[in-house]
Amino acid sequence: MPENQQDPLKEIMKKAGIKNTKHRNLIFDLLQNAEEPLTAEEIFISLKDKSSSICLSTVYRTLEKLMSGNLLLKTNISDDGKARYELNHDQHKHYLICMKCNKRISIADCPMKEFEKALKDQANFDVIQHKLEIYGYCQDCKTSPQLKR
Amino acid sequence: MPENQQDPLKEIMKKAGIKNTKHRNLIFDLLQNAEEPLTAEEIFISLKDKSSSICLSTVYRTLEKLMSGNLLLKTNISDDGKARYELNHDQHKHYLICMKCNKRISIADCPMKEFEKALKDQANFDVIQHKLEIYGYCQDCKTSPQLKR
DNA sequence: GTCGTTGCAAATTCTTTGCACCTGA
DNA sequence: TCAGGTGCAAAGAATTTGCAACGAC
Fold first, then answer.
1. Each residue of A5-28: pLDDT tens digit?
2. Which candidate among A60, B63, B76, B139 keeps its CA 20 to 30 Å from the CA of A31?
3. Which of B78, B47, B51 minimizes the C-alpha distance to B60?
4. Could you list the protein residues whose CB lies below 7 A from any atom in strand D?
Protein backbone atom coordinates (compact mmCIF):
# COMPACT_ATOMS: atom_id res chain seq x y z
CA MET A 1 0.00 0.00 0.00
CA PRO A 2 2.63 2.57 0.81
CA GLU A 3 4.14 2.10 -2.59
CA ASN A 4 5.74 5.47 -3.09
CA GLN A 5 6.78 5.38 0.56
CA GLN A 6 8.48 2.04 0.19
CA ASP A 7 11.90 3.33 -0.55
CA PRO A 8 11.80 7.06 -0.93
CA LEU A 9 15.43 7.33 0.00
CA LYS A 10 17.04 5.73 -3.00
CA GLU A 11 14.70 7.43 -5.35
CA ILE A 12 15.14 10.88 -3.91
CA MET A 13 18.85 10.43 -3.50
CA LYS A 14 19.15 9.41 -7.08
CA LYS A 15 17.22 12.47 -8.15
CA ALA A 16 19.43 14.71 -6.09
CA GLY A 17 22.58 13.06 -7.36
CA ILE A 18 23.40 11.71 -3.92
CA LYS A 19 25.13 8.36 -3.79
CA ASN A 20 23.52 5.59 -1.83
CA THR A 21 25.94 4.32 0.77
CA LYS A 22 25.87 2.08 3.79
CA HIS A 23 26.23 4.91 6.27
CA ARG A 24 23.56 7.00 4.66
CA ASN A 25 21.09 4.18 4.75
CA LEU A 26 21.87 3.46 8.37
CA ILE A 27 21.42 7.08 9.35
CA PHE A 28 18.20 7.35 7.43
CA ASP A 29 16.86 4.17 9.01
CA LEU A 30 17.80 5.37 12.44
CA LEU A 31 15.93 8.61 11.96
CA GLN A 32 13.01 6.79 10.47
CA ASN A 33 12.61 4.68 13.57
CA ALA A 34 13.43 7.42 16.04
CA GLU A 35 10.75 8.52 18.42
CA GLU A 36 12.11 12.03 18.53
CA PRO A 37 14.64 14.23 16.76
CA LEU A 38 18.22 13.07 17.27
CA THR A 39 21.47 14.93 17.63
CA ALA A 40 24.44 14.17 15.42
CA GLU A 41 26.22 12.68 18.37
CA GLU A 42 23.34 10.43 19.31
CA ILE A 43 23.34 9.12 15.76
CA PHE A 44 27.08 8.68 15.83
CA ILE A 45 27.06 6.70 19.06
CA SER A 46 24.15 4.58 17.97
CA LEU A 47 25.85 3.74 14.70
CA LYS A 48 29.22 2.95 16.15
CA ASP A 49 27.71 -0.22 17.56
CA LYS A 50 26.21 -1.36 14.30
CA SER A 51 28.74 -0.10 11.85
CA SER A 52 32.32 -0.93 12.64
CA SER A 53 33.72 2.42 11.67
CA ILE A 54 32.01 5.72 11.24
CA CYS A 55 33.13 9.12 12.29
CA LEU A 56 31.22 12.11 13.47
CA SER A 57 32.05 14.21 10.45
CA THR A 58 30.44 11.63 8.21
CA VAL A 59 27.32 11.91 10.29
CA TYR A 60 27.31 15.67 9.93
CA ARG A 61 28.01 15.47 6.23
CA THR A 62 25.29 12.93 5.71
CA LEU A 63 22.79 14.96 7.64
CA GLU A 64 23.61 17.98 5.56
CA LYS A 65 23.24 15.97 2.38
CA LEU A 66 19.89 14.61 3.41
CA MET A 67 18.79 18.08 4.38
CA SER A 68 19.78 19.41 0.99
CA GLY A 69 17.48 16.79 -0.48
CA ASN A 70 14.73 18.01 1.84
CA LEU A 71 14.58 14.64 3.53
CA LEU A 72 15.35 16.06 6.95
CA LEU A 73 14.44 18.95 9.16
CA LYS A 74 16.85 20.54 11.56
CA THR A 75 15.75 21.86 14.91
CA ASN A 76 17.78 23.99 17.21
CA ILE A 77 14.99 25.00 19.47
CA SER A 78 15.89 23.15 22.60
CA ASP A 79 18.36 25.74 23.76
CA ASP A 80 21.01 23.22 24.64
CA GLY A 81 23.24 24.19 21.76
CA LYS A 82 22.82 20.92 19.94
CA ALA A 83 21.00 20.66 16.64
CA ARG A 84 18.47 17.89 16.28
CA TYR A 85 17.40 16.21 13.09
CA GLU A 86 14.23 14.45 12.15
CA LEU A 87 12.65 13.07 9.03
CA ASN A 88 10.70 15.57 7.01
CA HIS A 89 7.43 13.73 7.32
CA ASP A 90 4.72 15.09 5.14
CA GLN A 91 2.39 15.12 8.07
CA HIS A 92 4.38 17.13 10.50
CA LYS A 93 4.11 17.02 14.22
CA HIS A 94 5.08 19.00 17.24
CA TYR A 95 6.33 18.17 20.68
CA LEU A 96 5.21 18.91 24.15
CA ILE A 97 8.34 19.12 26.23
CA CYS A 98 8.08 18.67 29.94
CA MET A 99 10.16 21.23 31.79
CA LYS A 100 10.67 18.89 34.70
CA CYS A 101 11.34 15.42 33.34
CA ASN A 102 12.35 16.54 29.80
CA LYS A 103 10.02 14.00 28.26
CA ARG A 104 8.91 14.77 24.72
CA ILE A 105 5.34 14.00 23.76
CA SER A 106 4.58 14.24 20.09
CA ILE A 107 1.25 15.55 18.98
CA ALA A 108 -0.30 15.36 15.55
CA ASP A 109 -2.42 18.43 15.89
CA CYS A 110 -1.09 21.77 14.75
CA PRO A 111 -2.51 25.19 15.47
CA MET A 112 -0.98 26.67 12.36
CA LYS A 113 -3.38 25.26 9.82
CA GLU A 114 -5.89 28.03 10.25
CA PHE A 115 -3.34 30.63 11.11
CA GLU A 116 -1.49 30.37 7.85
CA LYS A 117 -4.48 31.56 5.93
CA ALA A 118 -4.83 34.58 8.15
CA LEU A 119 -1.18 35.45 7.64
CA LYS A 120 -1.55 35.20 3.91
CA ASP A 121 -4.51 37.54 3.95
CA GLN A 122 -3.45 39.96 6.64
CA ALA A 123 0.32 40.11 6.40
CA ASN A 124 0.62 39.09 2.76
CA PHE A 125 3.13 36.46 3.81
CA ASP A 126 3.31 33.01 2.25
CA VAL A 127 4.10 30.45 4.91
CA ILE A 128 6.33 27.62 3.77
CA GLN A 129 7.36 26.10 7.05
CA HIS A 130 7.18 26.71 10.75
CA LYS A 131 8.81 25.54 13.92
CA LEU A 132 6.98 25.15 17.16
CA GLU A 133 7.87 23.63 20.46
CA ILE A 134 5.66 23.73 23.47
CA TYR A 135 6.99 23.73 27.02
CA GLY A 136 5.17 22.97 30.20
CA TYR A 137 4.46 20.22 32.67
CA CYS A 138 3.27 16.77 31.80
CA GLN A 139 0.65 14.77 33.58
CA ASP A 140 3.13 13.15 35.92
CA CYS A 141 5.07 16.29 36.78
CA LYS A 142 2.34 18.88 36.99
CA THR A 143 1.69 18.07 40.61
CA SER A 144 5.15 19.23 41.66
CA PRO A 145 6.51 21.56 39.02
CA GLN A 146 10.11 22.53 39.44
CA LEU A 147 12.39 24.17 36.95
CA LYS A 148 15.52 22.33 35.96
CA ARG A 149 17.65 25.41 35.28
CA MET B 1 0.62 54.68 33.82
CA PRO B 2 3.10 51.84 33.45
CA GLU B 3 4.05 52.15 37.06
CA ASN B 4 5.09 48.63 37.78
CA GLN B 5 6.84 48.60 34.43
CA GLN B 6 8.86 51.69 35.24
CA ASP B 7 11.92 49.94 36.48
CA PRO B 8 11.28 46.24 36.63
CA LEU B 9 14.95 45.49 36.31
CA LYS B 10 16.22 46.80 39.62
CA GLU B 11 13.30 45.39 41.48
CA ILE B 12 13.49 41.95 40.00
CA MET B 13 17.25 41.86 40.24
CA LYS B 14 17.10 42.75 43.88
CA LYS B 15 14.59 39.99 44.45
CA ALA B 16 16.75 37.49 42.69
CA GLY B 17 19.84 38.61 44.56
CA ILE B 18 21.45 39.91 41.38
CA LYS B 19 23.61 42.97 41.72
CA ASN B 20 22.76 45.97 39.60
CA THR B 21 25.74 46.95 37.49
CA LYS B 22 26.48 49.25 34.61
CA HIS B 23 26.88 46.45 32.10
CA ARG B 24 23.72 44.74 33.13
CA ASN B 25 21.70 47.89 32.74
CA LEU B 26 23.20 48.57 29.35
CA ILE B 27 22.43 45.07 28.14
CA PHE B 28 18.92 45.25 29.45
CA ASP B 29 18.34 48.62 27.81
CA LEU B 30 19.69 47.35 24.54
CA LEU B 31 17.34 44.40 24.55
CA GLN B 32 14.48 46.62 25.58
CA ASN B 33 14.96 48.81 22.56
CA ALA B 34 15.81 46.03 20.14
CA GLU B 35 13.45 45.39 17.29
CA GLU B 36 14.28 41.71 17.27
CA PRO B 37 16.14 39.14 19.35
CA LEU B 38 19.88 39.79 19.52
CA THR B 39 22.84 37.46 19.65
CA ALA B 40 25.45 37.74 22.38
CA GLU B 41 27.93 38.99 19.85
CA GLU B 42 25.61 41.66 18.53
CA ILE B 43 25.16 42.89 22.06
CA PHE B 44 28.88 42.77 22.66
CA ILE B 45 29.70 44.80 19.57
CA SER B 46 26.98 47.30 20.24
CA LEU B 47 28.17 47.82 23.79
CA LYS B 48 31.81 48.13 22.98
CA ASP B 49 31.04 51.49 21.44
CA LYS B 50 29.14 52.81 24.44
CA SER B 51 31.02 51.17 27.23
CA SER B 52 34.77 51.49 27.13
CA SER B 53 35.48 47.93 28.15
CA ILE B 54 33.27 44.93 28.13
CA CYS B 55 34.06 41.40 27.14
CA LEU B 56 32.01 38.73 25.52
CA SER B 57 31.99 36.48 28.55
CA THR B 58 30.39 39.24 30.58
CA VAL B 59 27.67 39.45 28.00
CA TYR B 60 27.07 35.71 28.20
CA ARG B 61 27.12 35.74 31.96
CA THR B 62 24.73 38.66 32.13
CA LEU B 63 22.35 37.05 29.70
CA GLU B 64 22.36 33.91 31.76
CA LYS B 65 21.72 35.88 34.91
CA LEU B 66 18.82 37.74 33.38
CA MET B 67 17.43 34.50 32.09
CA SER B 68 17.60 32.97 35.53
CA GLY B 69 15.45 35.88 36.68
CA ASN B 70 13.03 35.11 33.86
CA LEU B 71 13.65 38.50 32.34
CA LEU B 72 14.82 37.07 29.04
CA LEU B 73 13.92 34.39 26.59
CA LYS B 74 16.47 32.51 24.58
CA THR B 75 15.84 31.41 21.03
CA ASN B 76 17.91 29.02 19.06
CA ILE B 77 15.47 28.43 16.32
CA SER B 78 17.18 30.12 13.44
CA ASP B 79 19.45 27.18 12.71
CA ASP B 80 22.53 29.31 12.37
CA GLY B 81 24.06 28.04 15.56
CA LYS B 82 23.75 31.35 17.37
CA ALA B 83 21.41 31.84 20.29
CA ARG B 84 19.27 34.96 20.31
CA TYR B 85 17.90 36.72 23.35
CA GLU B 86 14.88 38.92 23.79
CA LEU B 87 12.97 40.45 26.65
CA ASN B 88 10.37 38.24 28.19
CA HIS B 89 7.51 40.54 27.34
CA ASP B 90 4.25 39.63 28.92
CA GLN B 91 2.54 40.02 25.60
CA HIS B 92 4.64 37.79 23.50
CA LYS B 93 5.05 37.94 19.78
CA HIS B 94 6.25 35.81 16.95
CA TYR B 95 8.20 36.42 13.81
CA LEU B 96 7.61 35.81 10.17
CA ILE B 97 11.00 35.15 8.66
CA CYS B 98 11.46 35.60 4.97
CA MET B 99 13.45 32.76 3.49
CA LYS B 100 14.78 34.97 0.74
CA CYS B 101 15.67 38.33 2.24
CA ASN B 102 15.88 37.13 5.87
CA LYS B 103 13.69 39.98 7.01
CA ARG B 104 11.88 39.41 10.31
CA ILE B 105 8.35 40.66 10.64
CA SER B 106 6.93 40.57 14.12
CA ILE B 107 3.30 39.73 14.61
CA ALA B 108 1.22 40.18 17.72
CA ASP B 109 -1.23 37.43 16.97
CA CYS B 110 -0.58 33.96 18.28
CA PRO B 111 -2.29 30.76 17.26
CA MET B 112 -1.53 29.11 20.57
CA LYS B 113 -4.14 30.86 22.67
CA GLU B 114 -6.89 28.44 21.77
CA PHE B 115 -4.60 25.51 21.34
CA GLU B 116 -3.32 25.56 24.90
CA LYS B 117 -6.76 24.84 26.24
CA ALA B 118 -7.11 21.87 23.96
CA LEU B 119 -3.76 20.51 25.10
CA LYS B 120 -4.73 20.86 28.71
CA ASP B 121 -7.94 18.97 28.11
CA GLN B 122 -6.78 16.38 25.63
CA ALA B 123 -3.17 15.70 26.55
CA ASN B 124 -3.38 16.72 30.18
CA PHE B 125 -0.39 18.95 29.61
CA ASP B 126 -0.01 22.37 31.23
CA VAL B 127 1.59 24.76 28.77
CA ILE B 128 3.95 27.28 30.31
CA GLN B 129 5.73 28.59 27.28
CA HIS B 130 6.12 27.97 23.60
CA LYS B 131 8.41 28.87 20.79
CA LEU B 132 7.25 29.47 17.29
CA GLU B 133 8.90 30.82 14.21
CA ILE B 134 7.27 30.98 10.85
CA TYR B 135 9.19 30.76 7.61
CA GLY B 136 8.09 31.72 4.16
CA TYR B 137 8.18 34.52 1.64
CA CYS B 138 7.35 38.11 2.32
CA GLN B 139 5.38 40.43 0.15
CA ASP B 140 8.44 41.67 -1.70
CA CYS B 141 10.03 38.30 -2.25
CA LYS B 142 7.07 36.08 -2.98
CA THR B 143 7.14 36.99 -6.64
CA SER B 144 10.53 35.38 -7.12
CA PRO B 145 11.14 32.89 -4.32
CA GLN B 146 14.59 31.44 -4.20
CA LEU B 147 16.17 29.55 -1.36
CA LYS B 148 19.31 30.90 0.19
CA ARG B 149 20.78 27.59 1.25
C1' DG C 1 34.57 44.34 54.17
C1' DT C 2 32.29 40.85 51.78
C1' DC C 3 30.64 38.54 48.11
C1' DG C 4 29.14 38.88 43.64
C1' DT C 5 30.84 40.65 39.06
C1' DT C 6 34.24 41.40 35.47
C1' DG C 7 38.25 40.98 32.19
C1' DC C 8 41.33 38.07 30.32
C1' DA C 9 42.86 33.92 28.52
C1' DA C 10 42.31 29.26 28.16
C1' DA C 11 39.19 25.37 27.88
C1' DT C 12 34.99 23.06 26.14
C1' DT C 13 31.61 21.84 23.04
C1' DC C 14 29.50 21.54 18.63
C1' DT C 15 30.33 21.70 13.85
C1' DT C 16 33.06 22.26 9.59
C1' DT C 17 36.96 21.51 6.50
C1' DG C 18 41.37 19.79 4.03
C1' DC C 19 43.31 15.98 2.28
C1' DA C 20 44.40 11.38 1.00
C1' DC C 21 42.19 7.12 0.39
C1' DC C 22 38.13 4.40 -0.70
C1' DT C 23 33.61 3.06 -3.04
C1' DG C 24 29.33 2.92 -5.54
C1' DA C 25 27.38 3.47 -10.17
C1' DT D 1 36.90 4.53 -14.29
C1' DC D 2 36.02 8.47 -11.48
C1' DA D 3 33.13 11.75 -9.15
C1' DG D 4 31.58 11.67 -5.00
C1' DG D 5 31.90 9.67 -0.07
C1' DT D 6 34.73 8.70 4.10
C1' DG D 7 38.16 8.72 8.01
C1' DC D 8 41.27 11.25 10.34
C1' DA D 9 43.05 15.20 12.27
C1' DA D 10 43.00 19.86 12.59
C1' DA D 11 40.48 24.24 12.25
C1' DG D 12 36.52 27.22 13.39
C1' DA D 13 32.80 29.10 15.84
C1' DA D 14 29.90 29.66 19.88
C1' DT D 15 29.90 29.36 24.60
C1' DT D 16 31.80 28.37 29.29
C1' DT D 17 35.14 28.51 33.01
C1' DG D 18 39.26 29.53 36.29
C1' DC D 19 41.32 33.04 38.50
C1' DA D 20 42.75 37.41 40.17
C1' DA D 21 41.30 42.15 40.40
C1' DC D 22 37.37 45.08 40.96
C1' DG D 23 32.90 47.13 42.43
C1' DA D 24 28.23 47.28 44.57
C1' DC D 25 25.85 47.06 48.76
1. 445 667 777 877 789 999 999 999
2. B76
3. B47
4. A 17-19, 21-24, 51, 53-55, 57-58, 61-62, 65, 81; B 19-22, 39-41, 56-57, 60-61, 64, 81-83
